[in-house]
Amino acid sequence: MLKNIGHVWCEIKAAGSIKAKLVILLFRLSTIYQSSNALLKIISVPFVVLNKVINEWLFCVEIPHRTQIGFGLKIYHPHCIVVNSDVIIGANCTLRQGVTIGSVINCEGHVTKSPVLGNQVELGANAILLGAITLGDNVKVGAGTVVTKSLAAGKVVVGYGTRELN
């Protein structure tokens, strides 16, 4: 637990704006609700509510408390960000404004699995990741890029159709 506090403190110190610091802090505090410890679960209920009210309703940053995100998260210009609760994001990842990460409903009406992001993944403004895809470590997704297929580690993709740059 103390180790996690140190990680969260480093995340908050590294966040650029006060808004980004608050978004990350409220998200991290709300994740305590996932604890198996009943006392911690009770103590964290107000943070789940604050994550919903401040982050979602006020800042338009929807990152549910159930979302698994490694430490070192960076959020630049935290506004209009939507992350499905089933998404898994690795350590030291970067999200920018307008990012959407989630599942899709296929032709048969079934909901697909959500994306899994490796470590040190960077998502440009308005990037969209959809479906049961995996992004390897150190992947960079350019602004406005829609990704619907898995990407190997180290790939850099931009534009419609995810044109690879390397």
Short recap of the structure:
The protein is an alpha/beta fold.
Write the layout of secondary structure elements.
Layout (H helix, E strand, L loop, with lengths): L1 H13 L3 H13 L7 H21 L2 E2 L5 E2 L4 E3 L4 E3 L4 E2 L4 E3 L3 E3 L13 E2 L4 E2 L4 E3 L3 E2 L4 E2 L4 E2 L8 E3 L4 E2 L2
Helix pairs in contact: 1-2, 2-3
Number of domains: 1
In CATH terms, what is the architecture? 3 Solenoid
Q: Whole-number average pLDDT?
A: 92
Total beta strands? 15
CATH domain class name = Mainly Beta
- The CATH H-level homologous superfamily: Hexapeptide repeat proteins
Query: Which stretches are poorly predicted, pLDDT < 50 over at least 5 residues?
Result: none
Alpha carbon gap, first and last residue: 40 Å
Query: What structural class do you assign from the helix and strand content?
Result: alpha/beta
* Structure annotation, total helices: 3
CA gyration radius, whole angstroms: 16 Å
For this structure, the CATH topology is UDP N-Acetylglucosamine Acyltransferase, domain 1
Shape: globular
For the largest beta sheet, what order do the strands appear in spatially?
1-4-7-10-13
Spell the H/E element sequence: HHHEEEEEEEEEEEEEEE
* Percent of sequence in beta strands: 15-25%
Main beta-sheet annotation: 5 strands, parallel
Family: Belongs to the transferase hexapeptide repeat family.
InterPro entries: Hexapep (IPR001451), Hexapep_transf_CS (IPR018357), LbH_SAT (IPR045304), Ser_O-AcTrfase (IPR005881), Trimer_LpxA-like_sf (IPR011004)
Keywords: Acyltransferase, Repeat, Transferase
Pfam families: Hexapep (PF00132)
